[in-house]
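Quick note —
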Amino acid sequence: MDADLILAALALGFAASIGAHYTGACMGMPYALGLVSSRRALLLMAPLALLGAALASHAVEARVGTGLVQHRLTVNDEILVVALAFGLTAIYNRFRVPTSTIQLLVFSLVGVAWGSKAGVHWSAVGSLVLLWVLAPLVAVGLGFAVTRLLDWLRALRSDSSANQATHLWRIGGSALILIGLAASFAMGANDVANATGALVGARVLAATPAGVFGGLGLAAGVLIWGKPLLGRVAFDIVRVDQAMAAAAQLVQAAVVLVAVGLGYFTSLNQALVGAMAGAGLARGRETVQTKVLLEILRGWVFGPASGLALGFGISWLLAAGFGAHLLSP
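Predicted structure written out below.
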């Protein structure tokens, strides 16, 4: 089979996996709170993810495709990058080890570029790492502040009649669904390059068609495989109510969209976890499951390290002539 077709097929499959993986992070909260059915949540999410990928992913596609390496990778090297990121994501998901798809992809890419002597723009990688450290911390602060603000607004309405309270609940529920849709758009813009940035790097597709191609994969993954994962969100971290859920989802979408607007990309799940932790702290430290947070932090360190090590090791062996025939077109 032609190497370009192998890379495109891997990218499409990875995009579908990403779409299914992030249904919980985008629409899990309104679904878990009974504000929307699973079928409606997925039908709403899929086109927003496609739109985000098609309209707002171009800078991220270019950064993943060409901005992190000094020399373009070969198609075979890009196949290795996507296969590693795809495979590691599946393995960590299978064993429920928390990690970041974006970080698995980037460090697999860096490892392959380093091992194949394509060269790495370490300053660009360092900028991403700094963003990935700061984004969850910013999300913690914003999650805390927004939850306190919503609590204050709710206290102002504490003397509402039953009908007014019901009306406010419905407005809040609709707002949470809209925030989930904003998170779906942000996911498309932020995460599609995990799968299709390799197509840009290998000059198989330009950034715009790569975004559309990957967006179709995201939407397919949401609709076909998303339902079992819809409820799997970060609720083990804190016990949430509607105000906390709205605060966390709003902060998550805002952090990711700001990063995308600047041409960078960050972890959707890490932004959500940070926002959830901040929302929990706003209600008291005892609501936050510290043990769960520490397990998540360990996964965030171990995942990228494994991508870097495997990417470097396999590409170095291939560059040295060991098993090079396995990836020959």
